[in-house]
Q: What sequence folds into this?
């Protein structure tokens, strides 16, 4: 089954007319996108959009052979020109299957929002799922058979992708394509980097893909370290990297601070922006968690883990530090690094980058700065990807 993407953008396209934002300004060439529309084997057209015939011609195709036009958006029909010769557009009721003379079978997928999703099975048996903007599938079987390709609003609804993964509908070889891209998505290379962390990709308008060829599926790193200064956006970046995955275990190393409302507000803000399917555990005992099989871990953060470790060995006391404290801390750090090296789980860890600021005025402050630098370096050595976040912008250091 061949899929030609006549457009990959949001209904208003990208760039938007007369919009001065950075994303629209950068949406030139292959980054410019018409409203999402799919042409399947030249016989099935999903979502009729402005200039569909011209878009098909630019991609080297014709709409002459189209036997069925289906709509997915919640509106009743296309508010655009209707190319002569096309069959009247329609919609398949949720749960019903439509068989085409071309050999394709189309099943309407119920959604958690207005509109219609479609599962298309080709004559060769390959399967794809297409979801309209800001929509997630509802009522999928569990376990579900993996699709060969899934097209959805990855950045707008990462939880929709997470739910598909949880049901088994998206597997290791499923080609996940981001569509309905608009000016709220980051421009240029940052878009492709962010999609890759979700195991997805975006392709230019007009691209023809063979459903079932999964060689372009991004390889997901198993271990990632996200570094950054205070309020740099490092925790948000770490959370984004796992937003499209189900059952993430959020490991909070901060504990609680009685009588500190500012700290409580910080913890609450972090908790409120996490997906509802994530679980949270508060612990600094990381090696046992890393040794277990299970869902992805998000560890936030290593600086607080180190604070707890230094407390436990009385590292703040110069005499105790010199007489066994330093050695005990090295052993704890080595155990953590070894656990990261051997872990079977996907891990995203957050840590502070403190070495570029003012030199601490106290010996204990300088000791913590030095030990955190050593810990970050040792942890990073075991990670496939390392990022430094500055002013909310992730800068790849490795991977």
A:
């Amino acid at each position: 089954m061949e899929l030609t993407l006549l457009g990959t953008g949001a209904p208003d396209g990208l760039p938007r007319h007369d919009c001065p934002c950075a994303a629209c300004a950068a949406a030139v060439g292959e980054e410019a996108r018409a409203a999402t529309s799919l042409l399947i084997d030249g016989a099935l057209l999903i979502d009729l959009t402005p200039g569909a015939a011209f878009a098909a011609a630019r991609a080297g195709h014709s709409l002459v052979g189209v036997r069925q036009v289906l709509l997915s958006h919640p509106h009743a029909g296309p508010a655009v020109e209707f190319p002569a010769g096309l069959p009247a557009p329609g919609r398949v009721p949720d749960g019903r299957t439509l068989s085409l003379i071309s050999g394709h079978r189309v099943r309407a997928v119920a959604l958690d929002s207005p509109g219609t999703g479609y599962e298309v099975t080709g004559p060769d048996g390959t399967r794809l799922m297409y979801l309209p903007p800001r929509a997630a599938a509802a009522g999928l079987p569990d376990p579900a058979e993996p699709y060969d390709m899934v097209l959805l609003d990855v950045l707008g609804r990462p939880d929709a992708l997470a739910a598909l993964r949880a049901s088994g509908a998206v597997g290791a070889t499923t080609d996940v394509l981001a569509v309905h891209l608009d000016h709220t998505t980051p421009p240029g290379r940052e878009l492709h980097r962010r999609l890759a962390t979700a195991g997805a990709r975006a392709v230019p308008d007009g691209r023809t893909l063979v459903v079932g060829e999964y060689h372009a599926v991004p390889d997901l790193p198993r271990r990632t370290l996200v570094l950054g200064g205070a309020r740099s956006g490092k925790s948000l970046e770490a959370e984004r990297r796992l937003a499209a995955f189900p059952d993430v275990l959020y490991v909070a190393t901060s504990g609680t601070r009685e009588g500190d409302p500012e700290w409580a507000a910080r913890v609450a803000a972090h908790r409120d922006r996490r997906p509802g399917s994530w679980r949270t555990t508060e612990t600094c005992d990381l090696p046992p968690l890393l040794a277990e099989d299970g869902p992805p871990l998000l560890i936030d953060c290593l600086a607080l883990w180190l604070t707890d470790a230094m407390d436990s060995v009385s590292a703040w006391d110069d005499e105790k530090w010199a007489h066994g404290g330093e050695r005990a801390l090295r052993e704890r750090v080595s155990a953590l690094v070894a656990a990261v090296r051997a872990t079977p789980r996907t891990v995203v860890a957050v840590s502070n980058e403190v070495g570029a600021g003012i030199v601490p005025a106290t010996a204990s402050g300088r000791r913590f700065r030095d030990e955190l630098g050593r810990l970050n370096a040792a942890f990073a050595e075991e990670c496939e990807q390392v990022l430094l976040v500055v002013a909310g912008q992730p800068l790849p250091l490795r991977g």
